[in-house]
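Methods — Computational structure assignment.
A single polypeptide chain was analysed. Its primary sequence is given first, followed by the predicted tertiary structure written as structure tokens.
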Amino acid sequence: MIHSDVIIVGGGPAGSTCAWKLRQQGVECLILDKQIFPRLKLCAGWVTPDVLSDLQITADESPDSLRCLRRIQVHLGRCRLSVNAQQYAIRRIEFDAWLLQRSGATVHTHEVKQIRKEGGQYVLDDRYTCNFLVGAGGAYCPVYRTLFQPRHPREGSQGGRGGPIDAHQAQGLVERGLLRAIVGEQDHLQVADEARQQLEQQRHDG
């Protein structure tokens, strides 16, 4: 068995950034992804400046394929509208691989098929064990299929203490030093009470 304190299933932007932030806090983690990076990814061909800000990167240090779009042309029949904008076109095959490399985390190419809890740990395919488990594999993530069905993967928590959070929320909480536990007693992504209260307060204020 290969053991890691934290295992992240999914090496895309959510998984690699979560690993990057955890490692900044001194937490070593292992990323599992069924594909070898760089891997072909055709969706989401651009990002906003807020994304770059959240990822704490600048256009100068990002992959060479990133291009700034300062105007967007909108065509509606014979009408043409030009809109000022600052967006960044990316190639996911390069952008995702760059984020994964930046994380510095160990990556294993492995397709997770079975997850069970045993003796206070999570066992994946009788090959990996961990104390904390993060699902960052999208709508078909095995962590979601095992621990969250029939809950929709995009559905947020509606309050309550120790409720489930997604990888993006976990990343923000780690950054603010609030994340204590990723998977809790009831097989849900959980946070400490003060983290949950702060998150709910931000939603209320926002």
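Note: The CA atoms of residues 9 and 173 lie 19 Å apart.
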